[in-house]
Amino acid sequence: MTEESTDEVQSCPVCGFSWAVLARSEVSERINRAVSSLVTVIKEAGPRVTVRPNPDRWSVLEYGGHVRDVLLSIRERVILASIVDIPTGSPIFRDERIDLGFYAEDTAAQVMNELEMAAQLFAKTVTTLPAHFDTRGLIYSSRTPVQVPISSTFSNAVHECEHHLSDAKENLAMFDAANDTV
């Protein structure tokens, strides 16, 4: 999540994603496409799905679990901001979830199903939210205390899905490169 500037649109320094406001139809389409691709990567990972290619990266399954939780978390922030004026969303505690073992019992089949369910729920929320609610504000979280409009959270959800899809694909490429050198 990045603070919006009135002068320029912010972008992710890693993947280049631009936090420009996206049309709602584009939000659902891009999230569904990224989640579908992430499900495919989880399948392709096979027994490597839980392996971290190095200590600085998560496993493919952990990236999938994180994307699932991000979609559910942002959806709850949107619902909260639809009801309460300028609420503060709950932080996702991404690293703590993994460090505390909350993904340890996840299986590839479960994460794939839950990813698809989370994407469907998120898309329904985007579709059913009254149009004039796009500008309602919320404090993203206590860890990211920036006031943003609901429409900005949609862009952030797309970014999370696409960015971590790239991370998961990079993991597979790292495994393949390691096998080529053996």
| Total number of distinct structural domains | 1
Largest sheet: 2 strands, antiparallel
The fraction of residues assigned to DSSP E strands is under 5%
CATH T-level fold name: Four Helix Bundle (Hemerythrin (Met), subunit A)
Our measurement of the CA-to-CA distance between the termini, rounded to an integer number of angstroms, reads 39 Å
- How are the strands of the biggest sheet laid out side by side? 1-2
Count the DSSP helices: 5
- Classified by CATH, the class is Mainly Alpha
Topology, number of strands: 2
Write down the overall geometry.
elongated
- Specify the helix fraction band: 55-70%
> Which consecutive residue ranges, at least 5 long each, have pLDDT under 50?
2-7
CATH fourth-tier homologous superfamily: dinb family like domain
The Rg value, from CA coordinates, equals 17 Å
Average pLDDT works out at 92
Order of helices and strands: HHHHEEH
Structural class label: mainly alpha
The CATH architecture would be Up-down Bundle
